[in-house]
Specification:
This protein has a domain of about 90 residues. The chain is an alpha+beta fold and about 120 residues long. About 10% of the residues are buried. It has a two-stranded antiparallel sheet with strand order 1-2. It has a two-stranded antiparallel sheet with strand order 3-4.
Length: about 120
């Protein structure tokens, strides 16, 4: 009788030890929904901001920040001569009077190009 009980105990022990653990269920990773980019729109100049390491980007405050390289070029000084503002519901460098052609003219001159009164390079 002891042999039978020992044999049954041994069988139960072997069966329990050889059992594989229940598989772990790992949830599938969720992929975030793609973000729809916020357009560079505005209703007032207060909606616009000068950004970028060198201050050469004019964008809506509603947009994610735009990163730029941190380098210095003399033509970047030109962006200090014109305001970043809301023009036709889009944040951009002003080209309206009294700033008509100012940015284009300054950029061309800093690059050593001849320009006309409107800031258009003369070829």
């Amino acid at each position: 009788m002891k042999k039978i009980i020992s044999l049954l105990f041994l069988l139960v022990l072997v069966a329990a030890c050889s059992r594989q653990p229940a598989p772990t269920i790992v949830p599938e990773p969720t992929v975030p929904e793609p973000q729809t980019p916020v357009p560079n729109t505005c209703t007032t100049t207060n909606d616009c901001v000068r950004t970028g390491c060198s201050g050469t980007i004019c964008q809506s405050q509603k947009q994610e920040p735009v990163f730029s390289t941190c380098e210095y070029k003399t033509e970047y000084e030109c962006y200090n001569e014109v305001p970043c503002g809301c023009v036709e519901r889009s944040c951009q460098w002003s080209n309206e009077a009294p700033y008509t052609g100012v940015l284009q003219k300054c950029l061309a001159e800093k690059k050593g190009q001849a320009v006309d009164d409107q800031g258009v390079p003369i070829v």
